[in-house]
């Protein structure tokens, strides 16, 4: 098998029609910092993260997922991965080159099998970040991104074959079969997961908080602010992480989480969990039950940006 060249998740980029409302939500309610802003574009950082930004917002006529960005260790690894993808017939949006986004760096973009734009980069300048203090309920970092696919088996195969993601666990049910695959690119249980959905779209983006107390404080702060809660608070079995899912102003699901499991990759064997078992979806039993409503909210709107690269 080819060497794993992706090191970690960097950021998720969203295009939104009501840009000002979305910017107010992510900075004023969700707890990200406007690291760099310009007319109609904002780069929002998580206080505890060395990444230049965890979310990019762009004003656009239609809502879409602009891209998901991952890191690599060196220019040689970026070049090797671009060459590997090109040789396998994957469509490159652009070849490896200097990046013009905050922090610079060197990277390239490509379309995955569903038409999402994916970026891989290295040598991005480290952002001056800080230790998040006890009781401070702001995101430390972007934890993971989950995507919907109408053919999730093909999507999972793409990321495993071309990018060497490893399978951590799978969710299934007696009636629906396999419905979610958790993929990792380092010791964390997942930085990407693929869900079975009716169309290509963003399922949710998840943000790590400092600890349990901060996670619960953040969950309560959003509830008091009147943000619509989809599911939680609770603790999943796969990944052993806490979860509280909310809707941003454009109907994207965003999650507060903490304590995502770190695996011993040499000894880990993937589980097949039956999510019709309440202990699988929520070990604590504190969350509202998994239902068709919860699932439907995370289907999101069909992504209008497939196989169309964002303008920047």
Structure notes:
The protein is an alpha/beta fold. It folds into two domains: 117 residues, 2,3-Dihydroxybiphenyl 1,2-Dioxygenase, domain 1 (Roll); 159 residues, 2,3-Dihydroxybiphenyl 1,2-Dioxygenase, domain 1 (Roll), CATH 3.10.180. It is built from six helices and 17 strands. A nine-stranded mixed beta sheet has the order 14-15-16-13-9-12-11-10-17, with helices on both faces. An eight-stranded mixed beta sheet has the order 2-3-4-1-5-8-7-6, covered by helices on one side. The protein is globular, with a radius of gyration of 18 Å. The mean pLDDT is 96. It comes from Actinoplanes nipponensis. This is Oxidoreductase. It holds the Pfam family Glyoxalase.
The helix-and-strand class reads alpha/beta
Number of helices: 6
The percent of residues in helical segments reads 10-25%
CA-based shape: globular
